[in-house]
Protein: Glyoxal reductase
Amino acid sequence: MDITDLQGTVTLSNQVEMPYFGLGVFQSEEGQEVMNAVKWAIEAGYRHVDTAALYRNEKGVGQAIRESGIGRKEIFVTSKVWNSDQGYDQTLKAFEISLNKLGFDYLDLYLVHWPVSGKYKDTWRALEKLYQDGKVRAIGVSNFMQHHLKDLVQDAEIMPMVNQVEFHPRLVQQDLVDFCLKNNVRHEAWSPLMQGKVLDLPEIKAIAEKYGKSTAQVILRWDLQKGVITIPKSVHRERIISNANIFDFSLSDEEMKTLDSLDKGERNGPDPNNFNF
Structure:
């Protein structure tokens, strides 16, 4: 992945350009809070916003983008179908609801939020139809492990273009990263900072001090250098700006290995192999 600046992109398997850095809005409250976050991010140069039906803030996200003064085509917007809406017909309906809340006539990326057993293949068929009908520019999955992906593609017409999973220095899952890259599925990180739980690790602090950067900036730079799209969440203007200030330094191979070595297989969120929602 060629890392240039905040508006740099990766090319998905269908040649769509996706910004490799964006704003996540999980737990950003609908209304003024999420609208402010999105507007501040766009002002700072972000061109990628990631939401989901579950977050219940799609309306605010859409309104903020419309009021930003930046054209819709310039902003890459992702949403996701929630588990209770999975299945072929239900997914098609859920997509239209999300689209109406956002106030858009298309989405840039639509994801299956979790691999709901017995449903995700039908859900994927619905995403394929949405893609073929031109209602979404790219389709993908979230929280899919290797075995989920292998199972899905046995019956799929289209390979997922993105897999968004929990990813941070305590949960690298290098085998999954490698599998995705090998199969031209872009790996994307949610909770890249483990909700702050990795910011005080001494190994990262030492690297941060060397570059005059924050530990968060070091971690987010590590994401990009590993070829991983990343969407840190914040509702604070200074943090949103700071998170994106990662294009004036690069980590050495040794420093990359240092962060890789912090992997302990620790999850902050649910286990994709064992969830009940």
Q: What stands out?
A: DSSP finds ten helices and ten strands in the chain. The radius of gyration is 18 Å.
